[in-house]
Amino acid sequence: MISDKTVYSLHRISGLVGGLFILIITITGSILVVDRQVDKLLNPNQTHIEPVGQRQSYGRLLTTVRTRYPAAQIRSIQLSEKQTNEAVRVDLLDAGEWKWIEMNPYTGAILGTRNANATLVRRARELHENLLLEPAGGFIMGLAGICLLASVLTGTWYYRRSLLSVFKIGVRWNKSSRIVYADIHKWLGVVALLFMLMMSATGIFFHWEQIEREFGDERKPEQTPVTPIAFERIPVDSSIAMAKTSIADFQPELIDFPKPGDSTLVIRGNRPNSIRMLGKYTVSATIDARNGHYISGFDARDADLEYIAEHIFEELHFGRYGGWISQVIYILFALATAVVTVTGLLIWFVKR
Question: Is 278 exposed, middle or buried (0-12, 13-18, 19+ CB in 10 A)?
Fold first, then answer.
């Protein structure tokens, strides 16, 4: 049996080693939970539009983009039919730079062009996942997730006999600073216990996937080369219509265009009865980009266990599945985790 003294030492060491990185995770994670709202708040002139008249066809919008950026590779377009006051975003690669093009779907005007990697939400994501130091930073953040998990498990074991008594004791504000820090640390630690376990476990899972990709020997199947497709020849609007006809109640939200050497475009979206925990887009249609013919459909409910598990973990990690209610809850718990980390560091500092 490991003694309680050893468990406490492990609790302290894991907290000290991962403390700064756990703070980064909680702050950036809070931004990522509401990334769409944050981006709209920071860029209202590029993301908000007034719906006036008829929407232009997506083919016409993309023609405007091609005229402005003739040498760029258009990667995707985010549709906004359900949010009538939101701009349409075109994602493209221009001279090696990833750009977001915001467009008014009613007038066809380009509202703004941004370097995607320079936006706050993308910087927050990169900082959250790899400290802006890919791939080495990803391993560091994976270690931080392990430290958080170890800290939660050892703390739970060490205080196992008095875990729930923290609610009775509360925070003794009239005591010394060390006791105040300890009371806050234990109280919020118990409140956010399950949240911290879930965040650390799912975070470790994603970083393990990164390690597999980095060092794995997974060989991609050889593909038969295809003749490059001129973008202007892709029947975008008829492809959307074909997807809606082929999949009952399909609501398209994103189109991924063919990559070099490919001849298909993928239209992603949902159905009214889609299970949100299975991902942001749970239904997709694969279309032949050369002629707009329907090739196949996909529904996340019919996917294999690995796919379902990965997407459930992703939704649990970022907390968008319950709309603004889950987002607010996640942010509060993330802030609680940050305070637990800070008070743990203060307890160690005062004891020195």
Answer: buried
